[in-house]
TrEMBL record:
Superkingdom classification of source: Bacteria
Membrane-spanning segments: 41-60, 72-93, 114-140, 160-179, 186-206, 231-251
Name of the featured protein: ABC-2 family transporter
Protein source organism: Catellatospora coxensis
Keywords: Membrane, Transmembrane, Transmembrane helix
This protein's record includes keyword Magnesium: no
Amino acid sequence: MTVTAPARATATVATPPHSPVPLWRLTAVELRKMADTRSGASLLAVVGLLAAAVVTVLSLSSDAPEFDFGGLLGPTVLPAAVLLPVLGVLSVTSEWSQRTTLTTYALVPRRMRVAAAKVLAALALAVLAYAACLAATAAALPFAGDPDPWHLPASALGKAGLFLVVNVLLGVAFGMLLLNSALAIVLYFVLPIAWSILGEMVAALARPAEWLDLSVTSGLLLEPVMTGRDWARLGASVAVWIVLPMVLGLVRVARREIK
C-alpha cells in the first residue's frame, strides 16, 4: 500500500509591476553622455571658443558699428551649426562602434525609446548651445554702434534657433542611418558639399539642387525675410536629408542584431 504525502501549499507573493524608465531620465542620461567623453567635452569646448572668437573679432573690427543683434547672432551660431552635428552623430553611433549597445538595451530593452531619448538629447543640446550663442551675442552688443542694437524680431530669433536644430538633426540622422562613427562623420561633411558642387556644375541638377540643397535652404533661415517658396524648399530638403535617413535608420536600429 502506497501512501502519498499531501502537497504543500505554496504562497505566492505579488510582485509590483515594473515601471519603465521615464523618457526624461533617459534623455538626461543621453545628454550627459555627450559631454562625459573626452571627445565630446573637447568638441563642446572648441565650439565655445570659436563662438567667443567670432564675437570678439566682429566686435573689434572696423565694421562693428554696423552690427546689431541680428548681424552678430548669425555668425555666432555658425560654429555650433557646423560642429555640434558631430556630437549628434556620436550620440547615436558611439555605442555601436564601441559595442556597448548590449548593456544599454539590457537596461532599457525598448530600442525606439532609447532612440527617442537620443533625438531629444540632441535637441536639448541645440537649445542649450543656442542659449549660449544668445548670451555671447548680448555680451558683444555694447561695442555695436547701432542706436537700437537690441532690435530683433521674434521670428528672426526663432529662425536662427531652427537653423541650429536642423543642422544638429542632420548629424543625428546620418548617425542613425549608418551606425558607424567614422563613416557617418565623413559623409556628413562630404555629401552636402558634393551635392552643392554638382548642382552648380551640372545644368540638369540645377533645378533639383535649388530644392534639395540643405546647405542653401537652411541658410535662408539666417536671412531677414523668407517667402512661402523658401519655406517649401526648406521642407523638401529636410524631408530628403533628415526625415528619410532618420526613418531608415530607426528601422535599421530596430532590426540590427546586437553583438
